[in-house]
Structures are given as C-alpha cells and as structure tokens.
Batch of 2 targets.
Target 1
Amino acid sequence: MATVYVAGVGMTKFGRSPQTLTELCCEAVSRALSDSAIQEIEALYLGVMNPEEFTGDSNIASRIAEALGLTGLPALRIETASSAGAAAFHAAFQAVASGSYRHVLVLGGEKMTHLSTSATTRILAEVIDRQERQCGATMPALAAMITERYRKRYRLSPARLERLLCRVAMKNHLNGSRNPYAQFQQAITEQTYFSSKFVSTPLRLYDCSPITDGAAAAILTSEKTDVAVSGVGQGTGPVSLRERDSFTSFRATQIAAARAYRMAGISPREIDFAEVHDAFTSFEIISTEDLGFFPAGRGGDAVEEGKTALDGPLPVNPSGGLKSRGHPVGASGVAQLVEVVRGLRGSAGAKLKREAKRALAQSTGGLGTNNFVTIVERTDSPLMKNLPLPPAPPPGRKRPAIKRTQPPALSEEGRIETFTVLYVTPDGFLPPLALALIRDRQGSLFMAQGEDVSHLKIGREVYLRQVGGRNVFTVKSHLMKVREALKKLLSRVPPLPAQRRRPGKKETP
Amino acid sequence: MATVYVAGVGMTKFGRSPQTLTELCCEAVSRALSDSAIQEIEALYLGVMNPEEFTGDSNIASRIAEALGLTGLPALRIETASSAGAAAFHAAFQAVASGSYRHVLVLGGEKMTHLSTSATTRILAEVIDRQERQCGATMPALAAMITERYRKRYRLSPARLERLLCRVAMKNHLNGSRNPYAQFQQAITEQTYFSSKFVSTPLRLYDCSPITDGAAAAILTSEKTDVAVSGVGQGTGPVSLRERDSFTSFRATQIAAARAYRMAGISPREIDFAEVHDAFTSFEIISTEDLGFFPAGRGGDAVEEGKTALDGPLPVNPSGGLKSRGHPVGASGVAQLVEVVRGLRGSAGAKLKREAKRALAQSTGGLGTNNFVTIVERTDSPLMKNLPLPPAPPPGRKRPAIKRTQPPALSEEGRIETFTVLYVTPDGFLPPLALALIRDRQGSLFMAQGEDVSHLKIGREVYLRQVGGRNVFTVKSHLMKVREALKKLLSRVPPLPAQRRRPGKKETP
C-alpha cells in the first residue's frame, strides 16, 4: 500500500453564490491546482449528494470532467448522503494507495441556495427513514430528538443544555469570523443566539448549519509532499431512529474512528485539532465523544471549559465548522480536509495557538448513518518519519442477514423515548408539530406525531393510533389515567345480580 | 496488486416487479450468496443511477446496507449514469486489488416501472446536455441522431440500416427467449419488428431497451475461484453531441477497451463472447466496432452474417442484452457480469456452442459518456496459469484545462449534421418533433428543433433562429434558395437613379 500525500487543496468561498455547480467545481479545482506541484491527474473522484434534485442534472461525473477539460479520464461520482465529499476522498485515497493511480483529483460540491427552503428541506429529508418522514420528521427534527435524549441521559437541565449549545455556536461563529471562505464571518453574542427562533426544540436557528453553495478540491498523490493521509475509516449506522440501540452517540463514527486511529497507529490524544461535522451544534458535542476526545456525556463540559476553542488544548472546528463555514452538503467532507491541510501548514484563516502536526476530519452522512474519519499529518511529524506507512489493519467482516421481518404492528400504548416540537415543518404539515419516538411494552419503537404540543416529556405514557396512515400519539393526562384506573377497578367488581321482578306484575311489551 | 476473483453471482428476474428497490437488492444478494463459497463480506459497493428521483429516497448506500444486515460495514454508492453498476464493480475491483478488502459485495439495482413512461423519460433525459434537452431531445432522440449519422457515414440505404437493426433486435430477443432472467422471453419476427412504431426515426420501439425493475449482485474476493477479473478499463466522453468530434463511435468505450485489453494482456480476437450495452440496437453495432471486434462500419455486416449470433464465432449478448433482458439502469452493469460469469461456467440460460474461456462486458453511461469494459476469464484459461496477474498498465494523465468560453452565439445559417423525428416526445413537446444538429460556417454545432418535419436530410441548408430560448431551424426550400440568390444578385445591381421630376409640375402634398 503506497503512502498517499496531499499535493494541493482549494475551495470556493462558501455561501450564496450566483455560480452554477459546474462553475463552483471549476473554481475549487483551479485553486487546488495553483496550490499544487502536481498539475496532471489521472482520475476524478467527485462527491455530490443530490445534483439530480438540486440542479435537475444527472450524469454529473462526466459533466464535471468535461468542464474541467478531463474528458477521457476515469470519473466517478461517489455518494453517501451528506458525507459524499469525504466518501470521494476515501475512494480516491484507496485508488492511490492501491497503486491504481498516482495522482487523482478529489472534488466535492453542491448547489443549494437557488431553491426555496421548503424544497431544500424536502430534498435533505429524503436521507431519513420513509416512515419517520411520513410523520413530518425532517433532519433538524430528528437531530432535535437526539439532542433531547442526550440532555435526559446526561441529566442536563434544559437551561444547561441551551447554554452548552450556545457555546458551540459562539465558538464556531468566532472561528468562522477569521475564515475568509466561511459563509458567516461574524461572531455572535449570547443574545443573538438566545433571540434566534426554535427550528425544532431544543434546537434554534443558530444550532443548525445553513443552506450553502460551494465546492472544495484536493489533489492526492503518491509523490511525497509536506502532508500525508495516515488513517482513514468508514462506518455505517441504521437509517431510522427506530432501529438504533443508542440515540446519544453515533456508532458509525465510533467504527470509522477506531479504524482510522488503528491505521494511523495513534490514539485520540495525539490529535492536535479536528474538523467535526457540526450540522447541528449538539452533533459536534456527540461527535467529539464518539471520536474519543472526551468521555461520553462530557463533550459539552469540554466546550464550556474552552478545551475545544482555538486557543484550547484540542481546537475543534477552527474553520468555523459547518455551522459558520456553511454546509454545501457534498462539498463539506472535502472542505474539512482543505481546512485541516491548511491548519497543518499554518495557512488557515484562524491561526492555531500551537503548531499542529496531526489533525482529524470527521464527516457524517445522513443522521449519522454513513460516517468517515480521516487523519492527516505533516510529513515531518514523529510518526511520519517511518514512511511508507505500515499496511492497513484488517477490516471488519459480516455475513449478510437479510431482514425479512415486517415492521411490528402499531401498539395501542407506549412511553415517550424522546420528542421535539418542530416549528419549521415540511410542506403539508402545520407548525408547531409535536413528534415523538414511542417505545411500546414489547420494546418496539414507533415514530408518531402528537395530537398537540403540550405535556411532552421523556417517559410520559401515551396512546397510539393510526390516522390516515400516520402514527398519532396522545399523552395520557391525569384525568385519562384516573379514568383508566377506574375502568380497571370496575372490571374487577362482580356484575350486579339480575334485577328481581315483582311477582304478579305483567311485563310491559 | 492482488488478483480479483468472482466468488458468486446472482440476480432477480428482470421486468415489471411489485418489489421495492430494497427488496430487489436483497433478493439479488441472497442469490449471489447461495452461489458463493464466501459468505462474509467486508464492504458494499452499490451502483444505482437515480434512486432519488425514481423512488424518492436518498442515502441509498446506508439504506441497502441496513436491509442486508450489513450496518457497520463501509457502504458506498457509485454513480456514472446508466453504467453505475459497472462503476460499482470497478470500484470494488480496485478495493480488492489494492488489498483494502478481501471480500466485497457489488450490487446494482434500479426500480423504474412504477412511474409513468413520461416521468421515466424525463428522469433518464437528465443525463444529457441541458441545452439539447431544452430543444426536446431525449436519450432515444440523440441515439437516433447518432444512428442516422452512422447510416450516412457508412453509406447504408435507409432500408439496409433498418434490416441491420432488425437483425440485432431479432438476435437479442432470440437469445433472451432462452434466459429465464430476461424481461422478454419471446423471439420476435421481422414482421413484429417492422410493425413496431417509431420512437425516434430511424429507431423503432424494438430498437430501444425497455423500462425495467431489477437488481444484480456479485461477490468479489482475493481468494482463488474458478473465474477471475483480468482487465478493467474506464473512459469518459463529452456529454453533449455538440462537443463531439465523432458521432459514429464512442471514444469512451475505445479508451476503456484499450486499457482493459492492455491489463489483461490480450487482443479483441481473444474474447470468446461479450455482453454489450445495447440500450439501442445501433449502439450494439457501434460498440462492437469500438471494442475492436469488427472494423468501423462493419458491425452491422457482422450481425447480418451471424458472426455475433449464439452459434457464431463471437456471440454478442447471449443473455439477450439490455434489449431483451431489460435495462434497470443501475443494475445492468452488474447483470452483464452475472451473465458473463454464468456464460464462462456454462450455467447461463442460452448455451454457447463452444466452451468459453474469456469474456468481456461493456457498459455505457449516458450517451456514451462514462463507459466501462471488464474482461473476465476462467482461471483454467491459458493466460490465467500465471497468477497473480502482472501490475496494471500506467493510466492516462491530463492537466485540467477549465473551459471558460461561453457557448458560441447562434448563427443564422448552417447545415444539418444529423437529425431525427421524435414521436415519443417529452412533456411540453408535441409529436412529431424534428430535431437536428446543425453545423454553422464556423464549424460550431447547435441542437435545434425543426419548424416542421419535412425536407430533413443530412447536409441540407437551414436557417437558424431563437424562439423563446429554444433554437429553431427551417430547412431552406428551393424557393427560399432562389429568393436568396435573387437578393444577392439584386444587391450587386447599382441602385436606380433618383426619379427625375417633370419641370414645372407641382408636387402633390
């Protein structure tokens, strides 16, 4: 396995752009080329999440190859939802590591801002489970439900959770204010954060990454440069919330991280800074735990204590992250690597306090369903003295076990596992929309929409029923519970004896 | 580079199916597993062209991995338009060849028949150039224009072209009638062919592959089996017709074939049979030329002479091809390899006359824009005695040259380079719709729609103008030409002297 180096990186400014997807991609490549000693490439690996629906064009790999004057060369589009850019980077890494190619171009891009927020939300929601979508769930809604569950599990008060999320948003906006490529280059105050509206409780507008246009590119090579890729890992997780055994961590990130660390021969402690997929502020906290930077449930404290700040011991998202740099979905995975390489070279907008030798990028596809971890090092770092790198550790292995089971029938009762109130609803749903994940007595999980938004609390008992194909829940009120208890009690009372008739009296007809 | 073997293959019956995409994929994998000694895999490579628009679900790699019980393992979706299945196969090949994985699952699938033909045509047309689409061009329309140009270039009479295309359709339907997995398992007569309606002149319904549901799977491994992959190649070509220097061959196939032959260390003569991407009958003829089986312009003769028949010296599409087996776009590239492996093992539905040692599969993405060639051999074939295979030949290399030029302004006049009359028009266009590729005096090409469908002929002079953003052409009639000549003549006649006034006469007011 050949060692894979980064020859050059480049990206467009992220934000609302008048350029087409193709133009954005060309600009990113042109910048990567002017950063690179390697000028000729052998293949194109393109990460775009959904050009079909965002732009109305498919066959995107050939299209972009043509615009780049690369027609003739192999061009592949790789897609794993919002981690498509990272997926393209990993596929390109494998191609160079295998010796199939010596120099390849990795490109990630997405054009989103020309559509309405409602259209964009609908397209982004296609990554989630169909049944959950039918209840009105969107990406922010499911992220909010994960956040609420996290709060409950780690016994944070609502006020404390808000404070922690606010700190993530403030840190990333402050970092972004120093990044000329970021969509938002303004620090925000606590007041700005707290005056922003709820998208889906407990997540506010400032907890969610924006809708963005942009592209990012990197040239990978087997010829030695100043930066090398020392570890890569990918993991997948269940698409639906219903199928998960944990709502407060992403197994896919843990798998990807374990593999990347093993390949690089390091532990999380040896990472100098990281770009983490903060599509939602709470996801940054969870991901820093999944990456092993902090113990489970302590990621929030770390932010509060300034550990992940630019001048902290482990800066997280020095670029501003998805939150402030923006999130053109297919581009983000490559943009993280652009920022990581710049950070290692000391050429990033936001300067790290200490010189960094080794950095990590973590990208999340969908609701944590297809995640990537990449470790990049300066070739003058201690580990990199022993090039070429040792062979990659053996991967995991599984026997396909095709699930033929029908989803369980809807129970009549259950308890709220987690919930949210969605204020930015998809078309066809009126805000505010209560959504909850309900666990029935058999342990099955159901996504359902609430009859109203009151009395929501994790652990509350609910009634479940189907209305027009959608699961609907009603929180049991005290009155309902009293009535239920009475009913049960009455069922134990022996039936009254049949009414005695007065002898001699005729029956009325 | 490790040698890559095929451990098992499987596919669903192709056709109109009540199953979902996920169910189709699971069935194909389950069949591949029961054909394979390898039961545990390390990664999933999934080729699907457009699940976003065909099924309304994105994040398809995680989704299918979950249905297969493979959650946790790396899962990538690879897409190159209608060759997505072949692209996934190639990416999986590279992953095993590089030693990244030992056993991987390749899966191709598409669900299409639940949509209207008009919706499917629109989705499929998104692979072609936007400006060409705006004129009303569809995949069959552009294929028809290529076919018409081929006819002209090789001086075939319209009747002879029809006869050749009919022979391809008859051969593939006859082969398909022996394939239990084929969508159409009935041979067709000349009469059936000639009584079928024109989709886009000169292509009839029986020249076009159908709309199909289906999935196909293969398990690749580095452990020796009876069949090995000895050569792979990929090439890209321009998306638009306007940018091509040849309309009668696909450069992308030629590049892919050259690389695959070089890797396998063989010449086209050493192929025993081939599965070729016959999305249109004429494409089978062109592709057999691009693959070097027959000289340019002689692919049709070869069909007529029975050279590509099941009992001929080089059977082409013994499975029935896309034409008769059906064309679930993302699945076709993998299905070809399923058929090729079965053909080598002698377990295919249609039996070859002679035992085959080495076979080739060729897959086309879009209008010949992203093409793949794969060579598969029995491990007891002469070349395969010397395993492992030698390293792959060095790939091509290019310097990105970003095209900043605006498309040329529409000229006022030009000549018809090729044309078609489209009878199955996209929404918003009334049939019959004349479409032509026009070359102006500067050599620029323009796609345009005709004012009417008469007087169409390659080489005819036309006027060009823009109507509502669309290019429209009018064939110059004899009368127009006479008028034009007169105008030119008149412009040379000196202007008449100013009218002399009679002296003494007053001017009328």
Target 2
Amino acid sequence: MLELRQTVEATTDQEKKALQHVQEALSHAAVRPEAAAFLIGPREERIALPEPLFRILRQAAAMLSHGHRVTLAPVDKELSTQEAADLLN
Amino acid sequence: MLELRQTVEATTDQEKKALQHVQEALSHAAVRPEAAAFLIGPREERIALPEPLFRILRQAAAMLSHGHRVTLAPVDKELSTQEAADLLN
C-alpha cells in the first residue's frame, strides 16, 4: 500500500501559541461548529467545514497545542494508484 | 495509554459532495494557505490556521472525499491523565 500517512507537529513556540488560540476558538464553537470553521474559496466565498473534517480539526488542534506529534492515515482499504496520485498531487 | 484515536468518515452523499468542495478550495489555496482557511472566534474574529493544522485538514479532506475512513492519533509519547482529560472534555 502506498504511504499516505501524514505526520505533523508544532515546531515553534509561536506555532504552539497559535494552536492554543485555535483550540480555544474550537471549544467555544462546540455548540455551533458550522458557524465556527470555514474556508475561503477561490472567489472569496465562505465554505463551511463538513462535520467529519471539523472533528479531525478539533482533535488535531488539541493534540498539537499540547506538543504532540499527530498522524493521519486512511484505515479501511487500500488505495488505487489513481486515487493515490490524486491525493498526493 | 488512553485511547485518543479519532476515526471519521463521510457518511452521506451530501457530506462527500461538501468534502469535494472543500478539497477543491484547499487545492486552490496551496500557494497561499494562510489566506484560505480561517476559524471564526467567539468575537467573530478571523483566526488563521497554523500550517501543521492546514496540512492535516487538506489531507483529511482529500481522503474523506474519496470515501475513505481516516484516523488521527498521537504518535510519539503517552499522554498524562490531565492531558487526556483536557483533550476529551
């Protein structure tokens, strides 16, 4: 299986501080996640984060802001070569 | 070690569609990630996503929109009971 595991960590104090800020914003947002996290699209439009992505984001912010390295990986099945290419590009 | 693994997946077609939209926005944003992903704080302020979090978000969106379950977990060391409580609350 191709390796699509992504491992990240906060490397500077500045990054840890930013992550704590994010974590705080996300904990305030627990009640209304759809109003708390969005992306800005190519035409400056707001795109809400779907719930599974929001959960990953919140957990990652919590772990990273505590100084942990975290890893993200697919769990269920192998990827086709085409899928892997799409994901890695 | 306490289990802080988070596993999520897109469960509906609507969610997969939303995730594809997010993935598209994120791929456009690859050049200027700091301009593409924000959270809204409790006082409606924009909070930029730190880079490690942005990378997790992009990879998660790519995998989830292809229908994969993904799992996020700490990789390097055990958590203290207090840290686990903070993360799980």
